[in-house]
Amino acid sequence: MATPVLTAAAGPAPAASRRGRRRARRRESLAGLLFVSPAILMLVLFLLVPILMAFWVSLTKWTGQGSPFTPGVPFAGGSNYADLFVRNGLERTDFMTSVRNILYYVLLVVPLQTALALGLALVVNRRRMVGRTFFRTAFYFPSVTSSVAISIVFLFMFTGGGAINAVLSVFGIRGPAWFSDADGIVHLLLSRLGLHTPPAALTSHGLLGLSWWEWLSGPSVAMCAIIALVVWTTSGTFMLMFLAALQDIPAEVVESSMLDGASRRQRLRYVILPMLRPTMFLVLTLGLIGSWQVFDQIFVMSKGGPDKTTLSPAYVSYTTGFADQNFPAAAAMAFVLFAIIVLMTLAQRRLLRERRSS
C-alpha cells in the first residue's frame, strides 16, 4: 500500500514545480521588459519615428513650409528617386559625382586604416616593448580629438606654403596645389605619360550621367589629403579593437606554433589572422559605414571643391536640404545612401562567410 501513496504524492510535485518555473520566467521577462522599456521608447521616438517621417518626406513635394503631413502636400511617389538615377539634372550630376568620389575614398580609406590599425596593434601588443602604454595612448589620441580641430590643422598643413610642401621641397619635389587642383590622380598620371586628350569612347559613353572618363578619374589631390587625415584619425580606434582581440588569443596556441617551427610571418598568416576574423569583419564594417557617411572633414576642409571633386553623398544631401531648401530630394539621397551601405555590408559579410567556409 505504500507504493501507490508515494506515486500519487510524487505525481503533482513535478507539475507544480514546472508551473512555478514558468511563472518565475514570466516575472523575469516582465521585469526585463520594464527595465529596457525606457531605452526602447527613446529609440522609437527619436530614431524610428524620425526615419519614417524622413522617408515620407522623400515621397512628397514638400517645400519646407508648414508640416509635411498635412493633406495639401503633393505626393510624388518615386519621383525624387527617379531624379537621382534616370532624369538628367543638377541633382543627379552632383549625387553621382559624390558617389564617384566616395567610391575612390572607400577603396583607399578602408584598406589603409585597417592595415595601419592592425600593424599598430601588433606593435603595441609586444610584451617586451619599452613604453608600451605611452605608444598606445599616442596612437589612440587622434581618435578622441575633435575632427573639426584636426581638419583645420591639416588644412593649414596642406596649403601651398604649408608644412607638407615644405618637406617635399627638401627632396626636390614640387608640392601640388592641394585644394585647387580639380584633376584626379589617374588623369594626372596619364597626362604625365603623354595622354592629354581622353579617348572618344570614354567621353561619349558613360553611366548614370557621368562619362566613363569621369568615373575613371581617380580621387583628386584634395581628396587624397582628406584620405590621409581620415586614416590617421580613425586607425587608433580600430587599433584598440585589434589589440583586445590579440590579447584574447590563447598564449598556448601561439607557443605551440612556435614549437612547430612556424616563423613570425607564418604565425601571423596561419594562426593570428584567422583568429582575428570576427574583429576584422567588425573593423571593415565600421570603416565602410563611416567612410560612406563622411561629412565633417569635407565641410571644414573643402566644401566639395575644387570643382566638386570632394563632394560626398552626405554633404550633397546636407546642401540640397539646407542650402537649396529641397528637403524631399535630400531625404531621397539619404535613403539611397542608406541602401548602398546596407548592400555593401551584406556583400562584405557574404564574402567573409564564403572564405570561412572554404
Your description of this structure?
This protein is 73% helix and 1% strand. It has 358 residues and is mostly helical. Strands 1-2 form a two-stranded antiparallel ribbon. β1 and β2 form a beta hairpin. It starts with a helix and ends with a helix. About 1% of the residues have low confidence.
Lay out the secondary structure.
Elements: H1 2-10, H2 12-58, H3 79-85, H4 90-124, H5 132-144, H6 147-157, H7 163-170, H8 185-192, H9 200-204, E1 206-207, E2 210-211, H10 212-215, H11 221-248, H12 251-259, H13 264-275, H14 277-292, H15 296-301, H16 313-323, H17 327-357
Antiparallel strand pairs: 1-2
Summarize the structure.
The chain is mostly helical and 358 residues long. Helix content is 73%, strand content 1%.
In sequence order, what are the helices and strands, one letter per element? HHHHHHHHHEEHHHHHHHH
* Tally of helical runs: 17
- Give the N-to-C terminal Cα separation: 66 Å
- The largest beta-sheet arranges its strands as 1-2
Mean model confidence by pLDDT:
85
Helix content: over 70%
Structural class computed from helices and strand pairing:
mainly alpha
Radius of gyration: 28 Å
Largest sheet: 2 strands, antiparallel
Strands, count: 2
Oligomer type: single chain
**Form type:** globular
Low-confidence sequence ranges: 5-9
